[in-house]
From TrEMBL:
PANTHER family: EXPRESSED PROTEIN. It comes from Lacipirellula limnantheis. Gene3D superfamilies: TTHA0068-like. This is DUF309 domain-containing protein. It holds the Pfam family DUF309.
Amino acid sequence: MPHDAESGDSLYLQGIRFFNDCEFFEAHEVWEELWTEYRGPLRRYYQGLIQAAVALHHFGNGNVRGAKKVYLSSRGYLDDFRPACQGLDLEAFLAQYESCFADVLASTEEFPRIVIVPDLIPEIHLDPALAGAGEA
């Protein structure tokens, strides 16, 4: 469990590696460990990342209705940290994330059958120049 900045950074980066490998459940688990112990200004940011991973996990497993619900809540958390946070260009990431979910968001069906398009799955790439961005 993270008790200092170094272990928190390690969990943040480990979650990103899982996320970029499309191991969304694992990314969620790692970031949840970080979120559980963290009490600072980035708590909602981490919660947004957790929910983004969960939304993509649901979408990839065909739970489109659940994916849409968690997508919308994740945006509520992450939008607050625009334009960038912890090295992540949120403007670019959220644009990719929205593109991935475009058919889900446009659907009016109660139980839509929409398949995730692998090429549209967002990735997290950190920019060292944005490392301190978003901290309160």
